[in-house]
Amino acid sequence: MRAVVQRVSRAKVTVGEDITGEIDKGLLVLLGVSVRDSEKDAIYLADKILNLRVFEDAEEKMNLSLLDIKGELLVVSQFTLYGDVTRGRRPSFIEAAPPERANHLYEAFVAEAGKQVDGVQTGRFQAMMDVELVNDGPVTILLDSEKLF
After folding, report:
1. Catalytic site residues?
2. 3-34 confidence digits (pLDDT tens)
3. In a domain, 149, yes or no
4. Reported pTM
């Protein structure tokens, strides 16, 4: 499972004219699921993200987590995180999980995060979404449950 985690002052996702998720200060997570992922990966990554110390303390050091600041979380599925462009110029998505499996693990991630964060916001799985954000810092972290980076 891969995630692009961005510290935001605000973010929202719309599908057509509908806002499906909107947050103020917190984290926007773009989440991709691979063919090798399991619920164990979802639990691991949710815990890792919620406890990332990427928010500043009183001394302006990144020492606080989303849980510490009682921030908000917006999770958006993004299978393109498994796009492979090592050959040619058109991405191959062979490593991305098929939709049914990916949705199950995406929902498992959201449920796990929801155990510690009230009202986790989401996009809409398999929909064409517009994601708007104000990246605070900017702070952007890449995570992979297989610890590739």
Report:
1. 78-80
2. 999 999 999 999 999 999 999 999 999 999 99
3. no
4. 0.97
